[in-house]
Design a protein that fits this description.
Blueprint lengths: L2 H26 L11 H10 L15 H9 L4 H6 L1 H11 L2 E5 L5 E6 L1 H9 L10 H4 L3 H8 L3 E4 L11 E9 L5 E10 L6 H19 L9 E4 L5 E4 L2 E2 L4 H12 L6 H9 L6 H14 L15 E3 H10 L3 H7 L11 H20 L3 H10 L4 H10 L7 H12 L2
Parallel strand pairs: 6-9
Antiparallel strand pairs: 1-2, 1-5, 3-4, 4-5, 6-7, 7-8
Length: 409
């Protein structure tokens, strides 16, 4: 019998057991008779989970994305994971997995994987911000690993929540040098891709992360760097400006906007385009930025390992959550307006379009007026403001004046 047939048969057995046992547990509150074929740690988790989790739940609850991003910036796992990004991404994409790192509470802080698997994972909020502890999402590999402090795998209908019955997950906790569980590393995929080698891979990756946690020097800076790159360009820590040249601010901005980082070749192209620049010049800029951040840039794949908050990322986060008010408050102008770096120009356009489209899609005339102040020649924005303003609103004169001026150009 083929491996696929074995998996299909095992999945059918688990679905049958789930259908029989979970309703009995929910009604009686005890482990039912006839559950001997199931793993005891799974059925005990089912019993605990049913106190707070509806098996019909379609996705994990979500923590505020801004808070999650700040938590990841300050996580002790960020540096060692950043150093393994290329390997984690290659494994996930080649084997059809989505890989996640959580904190000690079971909240996902970081993921990677191929586009198809990430899209599937996002449907159940297996993405940054998703809460996967037992009390939030029931029985799963993440919650079992956190509870036991040991590696765990959960296949198909061993999950309490039926939306996860098409998945298999392999997970191991990451321990700090003091033995404390800092979070977990999880690799998940569809049930038909189940592979016993996946757990060995997870264990090996966690061993590497734990080794790096033991050997890395302790962090001396706890205060995050504040990067302001909209309408200006400056970086500061504890109110003191960092001595960064324009090129280093461009690098810092790109790394802040793309937390997964850059290969050296891609970052060099984002900075210089087709210009001929020596490798020593490029590396010198990286080295200066790394010194200013006290080592906060990973080496093989350039990514931030020090906490950096960025106004441009905050605008994007606000737009992702439909908070146009906050996005407009933070959007003080174009991204690094004097920069001609191709990567910055691309992100500048992306931000301008995103904010403008959010304003045009909205129904708040105040938003259209505020954006129109920054875009004096944007006819469509001024027309949108006039459309939204009440006929008796005195601000119509302001919008009409702007529209008249814009139509002359």
């Amino acid at each position: 019998m083929s491996q696929r047939s074995d998996l299909r048969q095992h999945r059918a057995m688990l679905e049958s057991a789930w259908s029989r046992c979970v309703p009995q547990m929910k009604a009686a509150g005890t482990r039912p008779l006839g559950a001997e074929a199931l793993r005891r740690d799974v059925t005990e988790s089912w019993l605990r989970s049913l106190n707070s989790v509806d098996p019909a739940l379609d996705s994990a609850p979500v923590t505020d994305g801004g808070a999650v991003h700040r938590r990841w910036l300050g996580s002790p796992l960020r540096r060692p994971v950043a150093g393994l990004t290329d390997e984690l991404r290659a494994i996930a994409e080649d084997a059809g997995f989505v890989t996640a790192v959580t904190d000690e509470t079971g909240t996902i802080l970081w993921t990677c994987g191929g586009r198809t698997m990430r899209r599937r994972a996002e449907r159940v909020n297996f993405a940054p911000g998703g809460r996967w502890d037992e009390g939030a999402m029931g029985t799963n590999a993440l919650s079992l690993a956190l509870r036991t402090g040991r590696p765990s795998s959960v296949f198909s209908a061993e999950h309490l929540v039926t939306a996860l019955h098409g998945w298999v997950c392999y997970c191991a906790p990451v321990h700090g040098p003091d033995g404390r569980v800092l979070g977990v590393l999880d690799m998940s995929t569809t049930w038909d891709r189940s592979n016993p080698l996946a757990m060995a891979t997870v264990r090996s990756l966690v061993a590497t992360i734990e080794s790096r946690l033991r050997t890395e020097p302790p962090r001396t800076d706890t205060a995050p760097v504040r990067l302001t790159c909209l309408g200006a360009g400056e970086a500061a820590r504890d109110g003191a400006a960092l001595p960064l040249r324009p090129r280093q601010l461009e690098i810092l901005t790109l790394l802040a906007l793309e937390p997964d980082g850059f290969t050296p070749g891609r970052l060099r192209a984002a900075l210089y385009g087709d210009r001929t620049v020596t490798a020593s010049t490029f590396k010198a800029e990286i080295s200066h930025l790394r010194r200013a951040l006290h080592g906060g840039v990973a080496t093989r794949r350039y990514a931030l390992t020090a906490p950096v908050t960025c106004d441009a990322r905050e605008v994007l986060h606000a737009l992702e959550h439909g908070d146009v008010e906050t996005a407009l408050r933070l959007y003080r102008g174009p991204l690094l307006p004097r920069s001609e770096a191709p990567g910055i120009e691309e992100w500048r356009t992306h931000l301008e379009v995103a904010v403008r489209e959010a304003v045009l899609a909205g129904t708040n005339p105040e938003h259209a007026l505020r954006y129109g102040e920054r875009a004096p020649y944007d006819v469509e924005v001024h027309e949108h403001a006039l459309h939204l303003l009440d006929p008796h609103d005195t601000r119509r004169a302001l919008a009409m004046g702007r529209l008249t001026t814009a139509l002359r150009y």
